[in-house]
Amino acid sequence: MVLKCPQRCKNAAQNPTGTTADPDVNGEAISELGTAQSENGKVIMPAATVRFEIPFSVPGASRNGTFAGPSTPCAYRSESKSSCSYPKYLFLTSWLGNNNQSQVSIFAGMAGNTFGQIFRLTTFGESHGAAIGGIIDGCPAGLEISTEFIQRELDRRRPGQSDLSTPRKESDTVEILSGIFEGRTTGQPIAFVIRNADQRSKDYGKLKDVYRPSHADYTFEAKYGIRDHRGGGRSSARETACRVAGGAVAKQLLSAALGAEIRGYVSAVAEARLEVPPETLDFSLPENEVRCPHPETAQRMRSLIEGARDSGDTLGGAVSCIITGVPPGLGEPVFDKLHADLGKAVLSINAVKGFEIGSGFAAAGMRGSEHNDAFEMHDGKPATLTNHSGGVQGGISNGMNINFTAAFKPVASIKTAQKTVTRSGEAAEIEIGGRHDPCVLPRAVPIVEAMAALVLADHYLRNRTVKL
């Protein structure tokens, strides 16, 4: 089945001399075409995208090529032209057909805003927009939900909560728009929104035409041809508040269904590292501002963060996580291994540069006789004497505690002068203003927990479908 493009779209594509398509044409085409379909067993495209084929003749065009680019996505490229343009959501074109009678396939869509297969979270919004928010789909009906718990989780992440975080003041008050009735989930999409209140876009005026070192400024613009310089727009860590809200729902599902509990904590800030075994930590203590459950180590971490803040610099570190109550059987044996999905989830968090589970990279220096987790019976079930596997074997949970660690780089926004270039390629020097965390670790703990909860909730629901 060929999905036809409106005549105006065809007319634009058949223009052999011009290189610029009418920007309104394909927006019209997308809305008229709707969802891709299949006919005679042939699937045109996945439902999340739209494909249409345009017969046209382009003298001098080079066929059988593939053209893609953030600033010059186009329906065709003439050999005599160096550039062309099309609406920026069109990100891939390819030549089909023979001679000059060709067809062009155009794929439209923006990927990467949805996480999960059954329990799915889609987020939206930018750092300096009116609001951020999300939609949770696939949460079973009848789950008792505490909106107060969701808000408490958001309060753990919100900016301005202590002198160790950014001074930006946001209440991060969550508004539930749908999917919860009389305190229980209805089985329908749970929509929520978090209003932005303390934007200071003027602080970013000097950044409009320069690329901040180690930020997403250059790469985002290289991909999309446009960027929101006010705090990074969609690439800002402001988006992670939506993950915390979604993760708070996932946590309540896991608690109700499995009795599972997810505990994250700061295990390192620069050279200050938590040296005590995780099983000796007392999580019953109130969380301190650093979110390290070892008071002496927490004080050393605090001193380092204060020093970095006062000097205009930043620090990296690590967040570790212990998950209890996960039964054996969650995860898939091939591509969707539980630890692989946890790794993807955690590595999708801003500033995360590394992930390890169980013995992690230390396993590279061990012998099999050291690393193997021997089994014994415990309460009538197999259990391991050690946990080098981190609670996952063969990509599937084994019933032991799941433990992993995420490494965070230092926050890239520093007050020290740095070399960079402008959008036009000129050398420049930049000093970054605005309000930023000297160390993101304390506020990152609930984000790491949330991403782990989303993975486990999704795999829990997926696992309910694998056998009778």
Features:
single chain, 468 residues, alpha+beta, Chorismate synthase, AroC fold, 2 domains, 5-stranded antiparallel sheet, 24 strands, 24% strand, disordered N terminus
CATH superfamily of the largest domain: Chorismate synthase AroC
Structural class: alpha+beta
Biggest β-sheet description: 5 strands, antiparallel
- Helical element count? 9
Helix content: 10-25%
Distance between the termini: 38 Å
Apparent shape: globular
CATH class of the largest domain: Alpha Beta
For the secondary structure, the number of strands is 24
Strand proportion, as a percent range, falls in 15-25%
Tally of structural domains: 2
CATH topology of the largest domain: Chorismate synthase, AroC fold
Main β-sheet, spatial strand arrangement: 7-8-9-13-10
Mean pLDDT: 79
Radius of gyration of CA atoms, rounded to a whole number: 25 Å
CATH architecture of the largest domain, please? 4-Layer Sandwich
Question: What do these coordinates show?
Answer:
The structure is a single chain. By secondary structure, the protein is an alpha+beta fold. It has two domains: 7-108, no CATH class; 114-463, Chorismate synthase, AroC fold (4-Layer Sandwich). It is 23% helix and 24% strand. The chain is built from nine helices and 24 strands. It has helices spanning 7-13, 25-33, 147-157, 217-224, 240-258, 295-311, 338-347, 368-371, 441-463; strands spanning 38-39, 42-43, 50-57, 66-67, 90-98, 101-108, 114-115, 120-125, 131-137, 174-176, 180-181, 184-185, 190-195, 261-269, 272-273, 317-324, 352-357, 375-378, 381-384, 392-393, 396-397, 402-408, 418-421, 427-430. The strands form eight sheets. The protein has a five-stranded antiparallel β-sheet, with helices on one face. The chain has a five-stranded antiparallel β-sheet with strand order 15-14-16-22-17. Strands 3-6-5-4 form a four-stranded antiparallel β-sheet, covered by helices on one side. Helix 3 (147-157) crosses helix 5 (240-258) and helix 3 (147-157) crosses helix 9. The longest helix has 23 residues, at 441-463. Residues 1-109 have low confidence and may be disordered.
